[in-house]
Amino acid sequence: MVAGAALLYFTIKKVIYRQVDNSLLTEKTIIEDQIKQTDTIPDFEATFGHQIEVKLLTYHVRSYQSIKDTDIYDPNSDSFIPFRYIYYSSNTIEKKGFIITIFQTISEKNELLQDIGLYMFFLFFSLLLISILINYLIARRLWKPFYESVKIAGKFDIQSDTPLNLPGTDINEFNQLNEVFNNMTRKMRIDYLNLKEFSENASHEIQTPLAVIRSKADLLMQQKNLNKDSINLVKSINEATTRLFKLNQGLLLISKIENQVFHEKKLVSMKRIAEFGLDNYREIMQLKKIHVEIDAIDEAMIEMNEVLAEVMISNLLSNAVRFNIDGGFIKCHIDNKYIIFTNTGLPISADPEDLFKRFHKNSNNPQSVGLGLSIVRKIAESYGMVVTYSCHGTIHELKLKYR
Amino acid sequence: MKLLIVEDDRSLSRSINDYLKMEGHLCEVALTFADATEKASLNKYDCIILDIGLPDGNGLDLIREMKANRMTGGILILSAKSSLDDKLVGLKIGADDYLTKPFHFAELSARINSIFRRNNFLGLNEIAFNEIRINTEDNQVHVNENLLTLTKKEYDLLLFFMANRNRIITKESIVEHLWGDNVILTDSFDFVYTHVKNLRKKIVSANGRNYIKCIYGFGYKFIDS
Q: According to CATH, what is the number of the domain B2-120?
């Protein structure tokens, strides 16, 4: 476009110049003819308003012609005015030389050129704007179904109950794309649901054999006259069973949260639950000489499942107790935005994000199954809450933001 | 006590049967829903230990039937599904308690005892054992007529021991009993030790005998000697 405008500008400029040159040439020819015919300097009044200088010479000159630009000082306007002039020298039949110089101002022409340029610029610019606008409007109309699909697809959550349902459009290509997406996500969802169902079923099915093992170990334990080796064997079986049970229980809980088994909601007071939880650990904290401070500004009524709220707070608390040091402290701050547990403990080197991963093992505590915080996060996520961990040396902080 | 064990897993029902027999209960086993319905309608049981997920029926229906026929006796639901809904429904239609698999026998015993106490000793909420008297109504414990001041956990622990006299109780089962099985406390065995120690000290200082014995490798035993 810019190149086109430039090209047009230069073309027009060339045309103007050619016109000026032609008129100069024509005039020159007229004057030349007159000189050649009459041998006198013609009367210039009748010319086209050009400034003409004619010199008749007495000697012979070389025939020469050139057309050039020049600026001539104009005392009236105290400025230089652009002129085009022709310089022509030739000889009459009597071999006498003459020089014709014709000046023609081109300032008007330049102004014309400038005006044309300006108009052209406006024209092109508005054309550009209009074309952009039209383009935009067409694109918006054309891509509307696409953006709608993107919006719907962006909200797709494999864990939600509703499958992805992209609407049909007038445009074939988009229809095909939507169809492919619909089918793809439908398959994904089915796989996901199968997997979810499988893990929940597997967890449930494990419970009964686990109960059998535990019951047999219990019975074995009650037998009299067990020797030390047998006791150790039963003890190991017991420990492993308990571990497996805890693990399975944790996984089952996670899968239940995912399956939205705990859909019953009511307003629960975080303050009450935290106080209840602290009470449950009170003796343990006394034994570890952990100082407890509870700073509840608000009742913090949150609409959620009560059981899950208890599990969440209890896990956070058990974390604060378990990884605490003897003589340390736990601070619990509750307001209507956050619940924050701050506690002392050994410094940890792990990435804070890793703590929330399933089966994250803490080197200080090999017995831990590593599900506590991932359960907390799972519950938090299911209510749109955010749980973050930060650590400053030996001070650990777990922050739960309700909304 | 006369108990009916409804559990389709043969191995598990036999274990439960063996253990409860050792406790001195009279037990019968039903492996199917049909069998259980028949036995429940023919006999009177003090407590039915009922697995909900039976191959030929839902245990909850058995509860409904029993309640419709005004049969007495406690019902303890035993389920692999710790699903809250099942639990709520079960308790709502008349079950007395709910225990999730896998469970400790000590816990099962404690639950059965508690159901039995609630159903059969109306107004007589007292457990007496030699010089120890526990009033479960107002949660008071007397040893030789001296009132013991016990913490909630110590009191629960004593009741737990009472329900499992002469049986080995593992530390794990004590932890689960005292703190609930949602609580993940792996280093809590030290606390069990402290609680047991404190309870023992309190009983002995009230001129009671030391009944709680430490059993190597397992846990504790409350023995009558």
A: 3.40.50.2300
Q: Do B168 and A372 touch (CB under 8 A)?
A: no
Domains delineated in chain A: 2-114 (no CATH), 172-258 (1.10.287), 266-401 (3.30.565.10)
Choose among A207, A235, A245: nearest Cβ to B217. Answer: A235
Phi and psi torsions of B129, nearest 5°: -145, 110
- The span from the CA of B190 to the CA of B197, in Å, is 10
Per CATH, domain B126-222 is 2.80.10.50: no
Residue A32, CA distances (Å) to A36, A56, A60, B87 in order:
6, 11, 15, 122
Per the CB < 8 Å rule, is B102 touching A287? no
Q: Residues A48-106: pLDDT tens digits?
A: 556 777 877 878 888 888 888 888 887 787 888 888 888 888 887 777 788 888 888 87
Check CB contact under 8 Å for A365 and B187: yes
Residue B186 has pLDDT above 60, yes or no: no
Burial class (CB in 10 A: 0-12, 13-18, 19+), A241: buried
The model's pTM? 0.65
Per CATH, B2-120 and B126-222 having the same topology is answered no
